[in-house]
Amino acid sequence: MRGAEGADLEKKQILEEQCRAASETLFKKRKEVQKLNKEYDDDMRRLMEIQTKQQNYLKKNEDFSHQRERIESELQDQFDKVARSEEVKNNNYQNVIQTNPQFEESSAFKDVILESEQLKSKYMMNAIGVLAHDMQDIQALIEQPFQEIGLELPQTSERPATGSSQRSRGSQGSRGM
């Protein structure tokens, strides 16, 4: 019996050793699975952050595209208004020259030219101020050339005058001549 008990004891020790080895292997595998799960969670978190940033960049890009389209449209409107204004000015000028050929040598002509250039400058400065106000991202780029020549960027949030208010002022000024 003692021999059988010794054999059973030896089998028991072998089984316990195998059990201990299996437990250590299981422990190591669980640690490895935990590590892989943590890495997976970290990677998923980073992926979500990247996707969120991508969505933000896409939204900003879309906003900039809309803003660019709006500004291009406003710019085209202004170019159209300038062209119409130039046409009216040229027609009026031709009418004045036909009725008064010496008009170009008069002080009134010089006053009209001076007033016209002053109005152009005023409207251009206002438009630049509006552009800088609307597009804060490029404000520094717009300010730099002004600072280089000793001018301050106009601080305005007003839109340049358009439409009938501009025409009515212009027609009032021409009536006074």
Please supply descriptive tags for the structure shown above.
mainly alpha, 177 residues, 0% strand
Outline the structure in words.
The protein has 177 residues and is mainly alpha-helical. It has two domains: 92 residues; 77 residues, no CATH class. 84% of the residues lie in helices and 0% in strands. It has four helices and no strands. It is rod-shaped and about 140 Å long.
Brief rundown of the structure:
With 177 residues, the chain is an all-alpha fold.
Q: What is the domain tally?
A: 2
Structural class: mainly alpha
Count of runs of 4 or more consecutive helical residues: 4
Mean pLDDT: 82
Distance between the termini: 137 Å
Helix content: over 70%
- Sheet with most strands: none
Describe the global form: rod-shaped
Strand-helix topology:
Layout: H1 2-99, H2 107-134, H3 139-148, H4 163-175
Helix pairs in contact: 2-3
